[in-house]
Amino acid sequence: MLSICVFCGSREGNRPEYSAAAEELGSWISENQCRLIYGGGSTGIMGRIADAVLDGNGQIVGVITEQLAQPELMHHGVSDMRIVADMHRRKAMMHELSDVYVTLPGALGTMEEFFEAAAWAQLTIHARPVAILSSGGFYAALTELLDAMVQADFLSVSCRRLIHVFSETSALCEWLAEQQRVLNQSA
Is the dihedral of CA 179, 184, 186, 187 positive or negative? Predict the structure, then answer.
């Protein structure tokens, strides 16, 4: 079973395509017998993707800190909710449980999680694929920055290729299906 770690916002943002992409990805995860690993929240994009996975009777592991494990923030529909001491342990557990990383729209925490996963891939701490879903062009500036890092010779072309960027959820899901095939073949 492919375990997909999704980094995303606890807010919905101001464009409907952000939530729509999260819902579409969540539906795909449940339909394809994958498992969502995420931050355990009930609000924003986090809540939308979890709701979509649960609507399809899919599997979820939520990982949330003691500080955030409050009734108004924690998703009560997620039966496998792991409460950890702090954000460092949260990320470590999410990494331990995951086969692939996907970043949806979000803010500082989402960026921090994405950059850690990408940097760890660059340093060969892990060999898990890393992807970004740039719904509505949300990550266009980030993609330009990554390409500028290559042009300025701070980031190698091979390391830039570790980060897969998709503008459409359907293309991301096709890529995830390939990751699932690779995982099944190696099992």
Answer: positive
The Cβ-side half-sphere exposure at 3, using a 13 Å CA radius, reads 13
- Torsion sign across C-alpha atoms 51, 57, 63, 68: positive
Instruction: Convert 16-45 to b/e letters by CB count within 10 Å (16 or more is b).
Output: eebbebbbbbbbbbbebebbbbbbbbbebb
- What are the structure tokens assigned to 157, written together? 């072309």
N-to-C CA span, the chain: 10
Alpha carbons 156 and 8: distance in angstroms, whole number: 26
Confidence label for 186 from pLDDT (cuts 50, 70 and 90): confident
Cα 145 from Cα 181, distance rounded (Å): 31
Domain 3-182 annotated CATH 3.40.50.450 = yes
Instruction: Kindly report, residue by residue over 19-53, the tens digit of the pLDDT.
Output: 999 999 999 999 999 999 999 999 999 999 999 99
Q: Which tokens hold the place of 75?
A: 């998703």
Distances (CA, A) of 91 to 17, 25, 88, 112, 164: 27, 21, 5, 10, 21
**Token code pair at residue 18:** 């952000």
Whether the Cβ atoms of residue 29 and residue 55 lie closer than 8 Å to each other:
no
pLDDT cut 90: percent of the chain above it: 95
The pLDDT assigned to 170 comes to 97
Q: Residue with structure tokens 């925490």?
A: 109
